[in-house]
Amino acid sequence: MTGDPESGFVEAAFDIIRRVIYVLALVAGLAVLVMIGVTMTDVVLRIFNIGIVGAYDIVRIAGVIAISCGLPYVTAVKGHIAIEFFYQNLNRAGRIAVDTLFRLSALTLFGLLIYKNIDYGLSLLASGEVMPTTQIPVFWIPFLISFNLVLVLLAVFYHLIRPGKEMIKP
């Protein structure tokens, strides 16, 4: 890091983003535990002809939370599956060019997904859509996905401006 105030601001912003990503990774882990707990409890209670009302709804919501909140962390640590056999045949300049192209494509794709999820969330809010059994409103789910996709987008941008570095060390 240089003495440039702008560089210090950027690093401070990325540090805040890292902290948010860590918190969301914990939320993702807790959501997985909720899925396990609700499913196990529901199965055991069904032995006694009792079930958890809305177990399916709860597990569905927890699944969305787990996946969407875990995605920024996986992106930040570069935990996605890499296509190594494709890169092996390229020289360093070719790898950088292909990696840059992939990251620019990802920025475009995630930007579009963010827009579409916000649009969908607004339509769910307007319609008053709820989960079938628990009657939990669902408009917030696309907004949560959009928020996490913004963090994914920021992690991809970080990797674009700092090739070869993880935003977060695994």
| Mean pLDDT across all amino acids | 90
Low-pLDDT parts are none
Total count of helical runs of at least 4 residues = 5
| Oligomeric organization of the protein chains | single chain
> Can you write the helix and strand succession as a string?
HHHHH
Strand content: under 5%
- Described by the principal axes of the CA atoms, the overall outline is elongated
In this structure, how is the largest beta sheet organized? Answer: none
Distance separating the two termini: 22 Å
Radius of gyration over alpha carbons? Answer: 20 Å
Helix content bin? over 70%
Total beta strands: 0
Class by alpha and beta content: mainly alpha
**Total number of domains:** 1
Can you tell me about this structure?
The chain is mostly helical. It has one domain (5-161). Helix content is 75%, strand content 0%. Helix 1 packs across helix 5 (140-161) and helix 2 (55-76) packs parallel to helix 5 (140-161). It is elongated and about 65 Å long.
Brief overview:
The protein has 170 residues and is mostly helical. The chain is 75% helix and 0% strand. It is elongated, with a radius of gyration of 20 Å.
How are the SSEs placed, and which strands pair?
Layout: H1 5-47, H2 55-76, H3 84-88, H4 92-127, H5 140-161
Helix pairs in contact: 1-2, 1-5, 2-5, 4-5
